[in-house]
Each structure stands twice: as C-alpha cells, then as structure tokens.
Amino acid sequence: MLFLGFSAGLPILLIFSSLSLWLREAGVERSAVTFFSWAALGYSFKFVWAPLVDKLPLPLLTRWLGRRRGWLLLAQVAIAFSIVAMALIDPADEARLTWMALAAVALGFSSATQDVVIDAYRIEAVESRIQGMMSASYIAGYRIGMIVAGAGALFLASGFGSTMESYNYQAWQWSYLIMALVMLVGMATTLIVSEPNVGEKTDNYPYPVSDYIQLLLLFVFSVTAFALVFFYSGALATAAKQQLIDLTGLANLLAFVIEALRLLLAVFAAYSVARIGLGLGISNKDMVKMSYVAPVKAFFTQHGLKTALLLLALIGCYRLSDIVLGVISNVFYQDMNFSKQEIAWAVKTFGVMMAVLGGFLGGLLSMRYGVMRILFIGAVLSALTNLLFIALASAGHDLTLLYLVISADNLSAGLASAAFVAFLSSLTNISFTAMQYALFSSLMTLLPKFLGGYSGTFVATMGYSNFFILTALLGLPVLVLIVLAKRHLVFGTQ
After folding, report:
1. What is the pTM of this model?
2. Of 353, 318, 276, 336, whose CA–CA distance to 424 is shortest?
3. Contact indicator for 20, 403 with CB cutoff of 8 Å
4. Which of 289, 269, 262 is CA-nearest to residue 278?
5. Taking all residues of the chain, what is their mean pLDDT, rounded to a whole number?
6. 10 Å Cβ neighbour count for 37?
C-alpha cells in the first residue's frame, strides 16, 4: 500500500502545481487555457465510471492479472503515457496548447481511475481489523508521491536549466519524462502483489461480453454529451457572470450559482443521453441498474434510511474544519510575513512528515482501540489545533511557533485521516467496493470545498482570529454525528 499510495500521489501535482509553474515559465496566461480545469473533473466525478471498474472485464488483462490488478495496470500505463505525452508538447507553442490540455485531462482521468482501483483493492485485500494500517500506509505513500511530483519535478526542471527568466523546454521535458519513469514503482507493485480473494462474495461478470461493450458505449456517449455541453457553455457562463456582477456586485455568490447551473446542465445532458440510449436498447437496463442503482440501494438497505442518512452527513462534514482552514492557510502564512522558503520547509516538508507520522499513529491506535474512538479523538484534535493558529496570528513572524503549530495540526490531521479512511472502508459493501467508496470519497470533500471557497471572504469580514474560532466550531457537529453513528452501527469498527 505504501508503493501504491506513492503511485497515486505522483500524478496530481503534475496536473496542477508543477504544470502551473511550467505554463507560467513558458509565458502562458492561465486565463487563456481555462479548459485545463477539466483535468480536475476526473477526481470530482470518478464515481460515475467506478461501476465500470467494478463490472467491466478487460480483454487479456482480467484473465492474466485478475479484476483489480488488471484495471490497476491499465490505469498506471495510461498515466505514464499521458505524462510522456505532456513531456512531448511545448506549451510555449500556442498551436499545440490544446494538445497539452487534452494530455492533462487524460492524466487526470487515468489517475482518478487508479485511485478507484487502489481503494477497492485496499478494502478487499485484508479484513477490516487492519484497515487502519492499510490506510495509514497508503496516505504515507501518497504524500511522498506528492513531494516527488511537486518539489522533485521543480528541482529537476531547475537543475536542467529552466527558470522564470530563461525558459528551457528541454528541462521540463526531461523532468516529466523522469516522472513517467517513476511510475514503474506502481507497475512493479501491481505485478508483484496478489489479487484479492473475494470471488466467492461477488458475481463478477454474469453478463455476456456484448452487454459490457454496450455499457461502455453508453458511458462514452453520455460523457461526450457532458463534455460538449460543459465546454460550449463556458463562454456563455462567463458573459452572464460579468453582466450580473455589473448589475448586483455579488461576485462570489453569482459566480458559484452560474457555475453550478452550468455543471447541472452538463449533468442533465449526460443523463438525457443515457436515458435515450436505454430507450433505444443500446445497453442492458438490468445491467445498468446493477452497476449504478444497486450499490446505492445496497447501502440504504444495509443500514436503514435513518442510519444511512446519518452516515452520509458524517462523511460530508468530517473534514469541514481542516479543509476550510487549509484553503486560506498559505495566504495566512504569507500575511504573517513568512518567506516562500520558510513555508516550503515548514509546511510542505516538515508538515508532510508529521502528517505521515500521524497517519501511522492513527492506524495503530485504530487497530488497538477501534476506528470510532480514534475517529472521535481525531475530530477533537483537528478542531482544537485550529485554535493554535490564533496564537500564531497574534505572534506574527515567529518561526519556532510556526513549526509547533504545523506539528500539532499535521499530526492530528494525519491521525484523523487514517481513521476516517478506515471508517469509510468499513462501510463499503464488498459487492460494490469501487462504486461505493468512490461515492464516499467524492461526498467527503463536496461541502468542505464549497465552504472553503468563501474562506477569503470570511477572513476579510471577521479577521483571522475569529475565522480560526469559526473553523474550530465547525468541528462540534461532527462530534455529535460520531456519537450518534457509533450507537447505530453494528459492524466491527466500534
């Protein structure tokens, strides 16, 4: 899991952070390439094609490696090829910029697919008792992969001779080619490990091959409809936002509403195409229900309506406190006059190591005392450590205090994350592992990211100290939800 986590953490910064710096050095205006944001859609909507990962056999690969490892190797090879494709394109050439964006989108979707498979593999590979350590190892590897793709790629590009003052395409090309080579870590792991033995618990492939091909075609048609509507509505949405902002002045709220409507329109287009396709007999209706409806129905049937809604509320709120604060944290550090180098060492390096340590601590404690107890302790610590930022806001540029705050905050975040991933794993039905966990992981960041988008407005209105108190208070409802969930749950995570 450490090596698979590394393989999962590597691509994400190659799409966003490192790519942003590459584009900037190449003289590309981010506003001119807004379709690069499509790369994030893979992570946001991975639950849409997770049923394909659960139910669709791959020619040759499934028979050779098994259901999970076959998909995993395919995703990893696609990731490596996407990184190579990006390396072969110079973004300074505007004529080829669209191809760079498409390669980034391909990397996002293949990386999100790898995440879906790894989550399913981790849940199926071992019993729930040691899921805490599995998740801790995965998170540790994930963070190490992010360091390699973030700091490592930048060090390579700089070492090969590319700077803001003197852009060198070959430097970035070699940097990305090396990152593609590093994906061999994940591929080797996939080939070495064994396939989870869950055949007796699932009816893996009960339909004829033609039905799976038809399901794949219906999925492709629906995704195409989503992409076309989302892309071609961009200019209209931008014009509408500008006109309404000029009339009302409510920039943040209107931007969110218009983008939400744009997204809903694209989703409706995809849904309509799927419904039409089913009506025309393009795909087996029973198979579509088994892939998309059955996982959701199984969750509510297993837990009952009341408990299921309680669990969904807990999943959606558990990370509110740390994500809302995290969105504004880098701006806060800069406002406290910490240099970029100080932030890089304290937050991006030392902080990551403390989060890894917290993750292993959370895994060990979950095995010893049970997931629900550590879930509660993690929520308490995450809320309390937010209050430490008040002291840092008062002290200003105090490097020692920064390291103390980062230690406490990242240690508690790592502990809570390991327990939370183990908790989500324990909720998953082994018959629908990929689909259910993909839904859970998408839901857990939906509300926090939405509120996090207004963190700057909150700070401007109430100041940093009151904002940190607010983020701590956001953790209180979570404690109530954990207590209620523990009373209702009957599986072995108590």
Report:
1. 0.76
2. 318
3. no
4. 289
5. 84
6. 15
pLDDT in tens, 17-76: 678 778 878 887 655 444 565 666 677 678 777 887 877 888 899 889 988 999 999 999
Give Cα 100 distance to the centre of its chain: 22
Rg (CA), the chain: 23
Sign of CA dihedral 418, 372, 305, 451: negative
Highest mean pLDDT among 71-80, 123-132, 260-269: 71-80
Both structure tokens of 400: 């020692």
Largest CA-CA distance found in the chain, in angstroms, rounded: 67
Q: Which amino acid is at 215?
A: L
Joined together, the tokens standing for residue 430 give 């082994």
- Locus of tokens 């979950």: 366
Q: Which of 79-88, 118-127, 194-203 has the highest mean pLDDT?
A: 79-88
Task: Indicate if the pLDDT at residue 198 is higher than 80.
Answer: no
User: What is the model's pLDDT at position 256?
Assistant: 65
Query: Would you say residue 128 has pLDDT above 80?
Result: no
The span from the CA of 455 to the CA of 461, in Å, is 10
* Residue 152 amino acid letter: G
Residues 376-381 have a mean pLDDT of 94
Q: Residue 264 contacts by C-beta under 8 Å, 6 or more apart in sequence?
A: none
Residue type, 459: V
Q: Which DSSP string corresponds to 352-390?
A: HHHHHHHHHHHHHHHHHH-HHHHHHHHHHHHHHHHHHHH
List of long-range contacts for 333-342, beta carbons under 8 Å, 24+ apart: 333/402, 335/464, 336/392, 336/393, 336/396, 336/397, 336/402, 337/396, 337/397, 338/397, 338/399, 338/402, 342/399, 342/402
CA dihedral (183, 188, 191, 194) in degrees, to 10, reads: -100
Is the predicted pLDDT of residue 491 greater than 50, yes or no? no
d(CA 126, CA 120): 11
Q: How many angstroms separate the CA atoms of 344 and 360, rounded?
A: 23
Nearest Cα residue to 130 out of 456, 430, 363, 323? 363
C-beta of residue 352 within 8 angstroms of C-beta of residue 143: yes
Least-confidence region, from 195-209, 234-248, 304-318: 195-209
